[in-house]
Structures are given as structure tokens and as C-alpha cells.
Design a protein that fits this description.
The structure is a single chain. The chain has about 325 residues and is mainly alpha-helical. The strands form two sheets. A two-stranded antiparallel ribbon has the order 1-2. Helix 13 crosses helix 15 and helix 14 packs across helix 15. The radius of gyration is 38 Å and the shape is elongated.
Length: about 325
């Protein structure tokens, strides 16, 4: 807009000046040519000053050297000390202390570690970025060593090379920023808050390659930690697990106890499984006759049965393990 005004002013000035010089009788031309000339000069000076200021401020807004923060996508001037790295400004939740104290709050892991600027300044920019990202992951979620390397290096994670990811995890270990035992404890607590587990099932989940990939010793530590700090009650876990099973399919009493205690099921102890099922009965959550009726209908939905065949399937040791009375009730409810 400014340059357009300048161009129009100059053009008007030249036209009027030409009119005077060649003697064309333009009314008032000699009177207005001078004011237009002065105004044009004034506008030109103002535009030059504004343009110079814009150019100067534009240069000042770009640092000579920009470092990218992968976590927050923020660019910063490397010529000054980044306050994000300063000792007094960074607080990272860490697992440096393997025995956090229970204080009754939701988050039992309150150990805070700060990284001084000089600790990170020894690293290259790329190394600093991957170390920061590794630590940010640990603040948000618990990880085993192998899971953290995977998160940093896999395509659906951060996409660093395996070498860079391993360097970052090694660096956190060297600086005692991470303790894998405590990470296992955090992970155990997270799982228990999400869904019910038996002790054996939770250890397996933490240590399995299909799970969290902690070592067996770390997994045992994590589960022992939540036991010793009264975070978990295995009887209650069995009760919650029993309720979940009944929501998905029909069970007899014996069948549900077997499912809860089997090594191919939830791996509770027999005592814990019995407690879970007895709690269902005490609270009036289950009616075994109704379960037999559900089971009978589920069998018929899959394939045809005669009355005697369905009765056998419901009451057999190799079937659903209902009592004969419950099986009779279930079959009769189908109309067979």
C-alpha cells in the first residue's frame, strides 16, 4: 500500500509538471504541482524509514543459529543460555530413588531430579534432543530399558536410530536419572489401576516380550513394591476379574474358579479365586441358574443340540461344570 501511494504521487507530479513545461493549459496545474511534489517527498521519506525499521526488526527476529526442541517444537537462540536447561528451571520426575515413600496420594513417585545446563552442554545438539525426549517419555509413562529404546527408535515412536536411542538410555543410566526397578513399580501400579491382575499374571505382563519387557527381577521388584506399599489386594483383584469374566460369557461356579486359577487363565491362587467367586455370591451379583440359561443359549447359538446333549454339555467335567439341577434349569429355559 505504501509503495502504491508513492507511485501514484510521483506519477501525478510528473503529469502535472509535464503539462506546465509544454504549455498545456491545465487549470491550476502550476498551483498544485508544488504541493504534490512536497507531499510526495514527505511520503517517500516516511516509507524509507518504515521499510528500514521492518528490515531491522526482521533480522533481529531470526537467530543466527537455531536449535529445535523436538518435544515442544520451539526454536530458540543458541547464543544465550536456554532457561529450559538451567538447573533451577528444569524439574524432571525421575526414578533415581528405588524406594518411593507412600504418602496416601495418587502419585507415590515424587522423586525429582534436575539436570544442570553443563551436564547437557557436553552433548551435541542431536544427542541433547534424544536425551531430552527419552527423559520426557519417562516423565509421562513408565518404561523398561528395552521398551524405551523401542519407543525412541521405531517408526511409530520418535524415529531416531537405534544407536541414538541406545545412547540416550545409556546416558540416563550413567547420570542415574532412571532406575528400572522403580519404572517396573510404576508400571505395575499403572496396570493395576487399569484392569485386574493376579500376582503371577502381573509379573508375566511386566516381563513378557509381548508386554513391558522388564527383566524378571525388575518385574518381581515392581510387583513386590505395590504389595509392600498396600497398593494392591489380590483378593479384590480376583473379585474384579470374576466380574469381568461374567460380563463376557456365562460360567458355572466351578468353571469360573477354574478360569481364575488356571495357568492358562488369570493365574490367581485357588484361595484368591474362591474369594472372588464367593464375593460375587455375597453381593448378589451372580445367579448360577441364570448363568446356566445363558450358557445353554450360547451353545445353541453355535450349533444344534438335543436336550440330552445340551444337558451333558452343561454338566460335564469337560463342559461347563454346572450342577445337574442348574443344567436342567438352563436346558428348560431354551424350550428343549
Amino acid at each position: 500500500m505504501v509503495f502504491l501511494l508513492i507511485s501514484m504521487g510521483i506519477l501525478a507530479y510528473l503529469i502535472l509538471l509535464a503539462a506546465v513545461v509544454i504549455g498545456i493549459n491545465v487549470k491550476g496545474a502550476s498551483k498544485i504541482a508544488l504541493p504534490i511534489s512536497v507531499a510526495t517527498c514527505f511520503i517517500t521519506v516516511i516509507c524509507i524509514l518504515l521499510t528500514g525499521n521492518l528490515i531491522t526488526s526482521g533480522r533481529n527476529s531470526f537467530p543466527a543459529y537455531v536449535e529445535r526442541d523436538n518435544e515442544n517444537s520451539v526454536s530458540r537462540d543458541s547464543t544465550s543460555v536456554d532457561p529450559e536447561y538451567s538447573d533451577s528451571n528444569i524439574s524432571y520426575q525421575s526414578s533415581a530413588n528405588p524406594s518411593p515413600v507412600v504418602d496416601g496420594s495418587e502419585d507415590i513417585f515424587r522423586t525429582i531430579v534436575t539436570l544442570a545446563f553443563e551436564d547437557l552442554s557436553e552433548l551435541s545438539i542431536d544427542e541433547r534432543n534424544v536425551v531430552k525426549e527419552a527423559q520426557n517419555y519417562l516423565i509421562l509413562f513408565p518404561y523398561s530399558r528395552q521398551k524405551l529404546i523401542d519407543q525412541l527408535s521405531l517408526e511409530y515412536g520418535s524415529g531416531y536410530s537405534v544407536e541414538d536411542a541406545t545412547f540416550a538410555v545409556d546416558y540416563l543410566e550413567e547420570k542415574k536419572i532412571v532406575d528400572w526397578n522403580e519404572q517396573a513399580a510404576r508400571s505395575a501400579k499403572t496396570y493395576i489401576e487399569t484392569m485386574p491382575f493376579s500376582r503371577a499374571g502381573l509379573v508375566q505382563q511386566l516381563a513378557s516380550d509381548a508386554g513391558e519387557r522388564f527383566t524378571l527381577e525388575q518385574a518381581e521388584y515392581g510387583v513386590s513394591f505395590i504389595e509392600n506399599n498396600n497398593i494392591v489386594n489380590w483378593n479384590e483383584q480376583a473379585f474384579q476379574s470374576a466380574k469381568l469374566y461374567l460380563e463376557t460369557m456365562a460360567y458355572s461356579r466351578r468353571g469360573l474358579v477354574d478360569q481364575l486359577s488356571s495357568e492358562f487363565g488369570s493365574q490367581f491362587t485357588i484361595e484368591q479365586a474362591e474369594y472372588g467367586v464367593a464375593s460375587l455370591e455375597t453381593e448378589g451379583i451372580v445367579d448360577w441358574n441364570e448363568q446356566a440359561a445363558r450358557a445353554a443359549q450360547q451353545y445353541l447359538d453355535v450349533m444344534p443340540y438335543s436336550r440330552s446333549e445340551l444337558l451333558e454339555q452343561l454338566s460335564s467335567e469337560y463342559g461347563s461344570k454346572f450342577t445337574l439341577e442348574q443344567a436342567e434349569y438352563g436346558v428348560s429355559s431354551t424350550g428343549l
